[in-house]
Amino acid sequence: MTIHCVNPLEEAGWDEALAPLPGSAIFHGAAWTRVIQDTYAYRPFSFLGGAAGEPRSILSVMEVDSPLTGKRGVSLPFTDECEPPGADADSFPGLFRDALDCARRRGWRYLEVRGGKTFLPEAPASTSYYGHRLDLRDGESALYRRLDSSVRRALRKAEQSGLTVEFSQELAAVRDFHHLLRKTRQRHGMPPQPFKFFANLHRHILAPNQGRVVLARHNGVAIAGAVFFQFGRTALFKFGASDSAFQNLRANNLVMWRAIEWHVRQGFTSLDFGRTSLDNEGLRRFKLSWGSQERPIEYIRYDLRTESFVRALDRSTGWHNRIFRLLPGPFAQAMGSVLYKHLG
Asked: Which residues contact 209 (CB under 8 A, 6 or more apart)?
């Protein structure tokens, strides 16, 4: 199989060529690449199996070049799961070998792929997570019946609280969501992503009709929200946030259910809830309570210094959470603006 390395932003018709491939997702598309490049200046590389204009399989990678955390390739940064589109046991090893050749030429410390492990059975998982996906094809009534009883009670309470829910692609809604995100990230002991990142999400994904912000308001004030992406017939819950002062109104539940209803009515076939750390049992139960199906998500990481597959820690939780939880909001925001470029 012939393998080409291209920059997806320089390929005419990239998304059209990508769309028919099994496993393709919004993260492989040009819009996400632009978001990451415009925000963090990472360099994209896509390895294609087959003809350059009609790829049969793809491994997309971005180069993270940081003086703090080193130079490495990630497929793909700031994603939860990134299975290589169209890849199989025959094509993926060749794509992976070419990516490693590129890694050696460019001096990467390691190459991390957030999917594709089934095609390299000899590789140990570097990090493992839970994934959850909801099949939307049975319709609203069947989906409602499958909800956990606690979710149905929360929805009744939210509906009785007089909350309103809006769907938006406007920058003003993104600002309202980011305000909630700053509160949520501090509550969890994590710095918030810089607003520049969300402004680029608006520019490249939301405004071109590949996603929406869903906000629940109480007396006109946003108290909970979520950002959803859409690609083909698949929707993805990417970010969620809320104001804990209104937790008793169960606005998060109403946001999720209204989003499920909307995606069903628009003809989407599945809703992906993203990844969950193995030790975050509360979040795992929340996602299962919507009737979703659970699956493992496994990353692989190849260390170019030792020429071997290695394991890595899930750093979602740790001592850093206690520190960021105590930081003043403006300082945590400033730290987020600096740190995310180096994290990838």
From this structure: 169
Quote the CA–CA distance of 147 and 157 in Å, as a whole number. Answer: 15
pTM of the model: 0.94
What are the start-end ranges of the H helices in 51-191?
A: 92-106, 140-146, 149-160, 171-187
53 and 94 part of one domain? yes
Q: Which amino acid is at 13?
A: G
Short-list 114, 61, 116, 129, CA closest to 86: 116
Segment 204-225, tens digit of pLDDT: 999 999 999 999 999 999 999 9
Could you tell me if 70 and 183 lie in one domain? no
Measured over the CA atoms of residue 247, residue 252, residue 254 and residue 255, the dihedral's sign is positive
Torsion of CA 34, 37, 43, 45, to 10 degrees: -20
Asked if 310 contacts 154 with a C-beta cutoff of 8 angstroms, the reply is no
Q: Average pLDDT over the chain, rounded to whole? A: 93
Tell me which residue range forms the domain holding 17: 3-128+298-343
Tally of domains within the chain: 2
SS3 252: helix
117 and 170: one domain?
Answer: no
Give the confidence band of 319 by pLDDT, cuts at 50, 70, 90: low
Residue 313 confidence (pLDDT) above 90: no
What is the band of 324 on the pLDDT scale with cuts at 50, 70, 90? low
Helix (H, G, I), strand (E, B) or coil at 181: helix
Structure tokens at 269: 């076939």
Q: Are strands 127-135 and 110-113 parallel, antiparallel or unpaired?
A: unpaired
- Whether 62 and 26 map to the same domain: the answer is yes
116 DSSP β-pair partners: none
